[in-house]
Amino acid sequence: KDPWNNQSYDAYADMIIWTKNKDQSWSFDYTIFDKWVEFMMDLGTDNMINCYSLLTWNNQVHYNDMEKGELVTLELKAQSDEYAEFWSVFLKDFTKHLKEKGWLEITNIAMDERSPADMQATMKVLETSAPELGVSLADNHKSYKEYPGIKDISVGASSEVDKADITLRRAEGLITTWYVCCADPFANMFTFSAPAEPVYAAWHTVAGDFDGMLRWAYNSWVENPLTDSRFRTWPAGDTYMVYPDARSSIRFERLIEGIQDAEKIRILRKQYKEENSDESLEKLNKLEEAIAYFYTLEPSDDWNHKLNEAKKLLN
Is 80 helix (H, G, I), strand (E, B) or coil? Predict the structure, then answer.
């Protein structure tokens, strides 16, 4: 079922339909899943497929029961034998399907802020039933320390990541990012956040040597998104950064600006190192000194001024 327990106004419908046949065998309809993956690939998003729902927030799964003629909902906790048995059948069939489509090497089972105990149980199921599948995790428990081979890890803003771990993971072709969401006061992208905070977040990404950042959410709209950005549970603007009918926002445009800054930094670093002149190395040192300030998410009161001064080094 919806991995986030229908936390927003638009529940995520199933992309893979499970059916338990009258002879107790299982069949899985991948039609919608395949169409979505192919659509995204046609748009150029083709380096990773992250599949949620193995660890849902409410521990629920459902399937069509042909013998009963109804949709059955089960509550299966990750640490139970029933959970392992139930998911094993699907994971093996899913792996086979991905091989046939040529997508296996880029597909991850994705999990969002799950407890260490649930992670341990789920990883055992994956190792037994689908060892060829990768794992993607939004991690607020430093679980990445326990599973260094996770392909795609995004660590919560409140959990500091060792740069040595990032360097090691990058050398092995693994992705390490950080994320902000509803609970993080800074640097965030709420409706009421300072407009420069998204830019700061991009500079923090560079300062922390991350491969990128993750932000919930892009367009999970509230009841009346054009007139009121508040949500029933989280701060205003947390669930979306763009508006219906292709409307942008100041915070989204500032995020784009921050991404552009990060790309400029990458280009300038490369250029200064290749030139290797006294002048270029001096510029590089000044740039690195400026970047280092943004490593913290508890900056001084003049952070906006420091950001503007740092941006001057890119022009």
Answer: coil
